[in-house]
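Postdoc handover notes: sequence design on the structure in folder B. Input C-alpha cells:
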C-alpha cells in the first residue's frame, strides 16, 4: 500500500477528497476507476449504491467503530456532513472522478441529494450491524471515553 494513502490524522481531519484516475478517449467518453489499496487506504470488502433517494433526502445518521468508506457520486450530487465529536465539516460530492474517504469513528449525515443521484460506497468490511453506532448520544459517549484505538 502506498503510504500517502494512510491517514496521518483521525476524525474529521482524516476525511478527504480523493481524486480518482480518469481516462478520456475521443469519441468514446470517459472512464474512471478505483483500485483497492492504491486509490483507497483499505481492501475493498463490500460495494453498494444509494439511489432513488428523494431530492433533498437524508441518509446516514450513524458512525462505524471500525469500517472505513469511500463515497463516490456516480450521478447527481449530495452533501456529506462529518463530525468526530469535536469538529464538523461538509463535503459536496458531484464529480464521478472524486471520492470522499471516511475513516472509522466519524459520524456521517448524507443530505441534499439531487434528483436522480446515485452514490456508490466502497467499504472496508462486510456488513456487520455490531459495527454501527446509530445514536448520536452513544457516539458522543464513546468519543468522550476516548474510543479511537
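Designed sequence:
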Amino acid at each position: 500500500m502506498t503510504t500517502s494513502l494512510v491517514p496521518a490524522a483521525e476524525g474529521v481531519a482524516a476525511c478527504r477528497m480523493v481524486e480518482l484516475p480518469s481516462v478520456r478517449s475521443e469519441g468514446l467518453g470517459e472512464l474512471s476507476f478505483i483500485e483497492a489499496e492504491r486509490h483507497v487506504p483499505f481492501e475493498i470488502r463490500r460495494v453498494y449504491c444509494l439511489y432513488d433517494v428523494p431530492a433533498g433526502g437524508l441518509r446516514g445518521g450513524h458512525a462505524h467503530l471500525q469500517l472505513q468508506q469511500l463515497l463516490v457520486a456516480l450521478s447527481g450530487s449530495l452533501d456529506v456532513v462529518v463530525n468526530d465529536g469535536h469538529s464538523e465539516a461538509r463535503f459536496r460530492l458531484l464529480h464521478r472522478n472524486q471520492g470522499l474517504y471516511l475513516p472509522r469513528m466519524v459520524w456521517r449525515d448524507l443530505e441534499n441529494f439531487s434528483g436522480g443521484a446515485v452514490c456508490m460506497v466502497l467499504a472496508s468490511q462486510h456488513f456487520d450491524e455490531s459495527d454501527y453506532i446509530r445514536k448520536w448520544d452513544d457516539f458522543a459517549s464513546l468519543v468522550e471515553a476516548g474510543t479511537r484505538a
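Context for whoever picks this up: The radius of gyration is 15 Å. Don't rerun without checking with the PI first.
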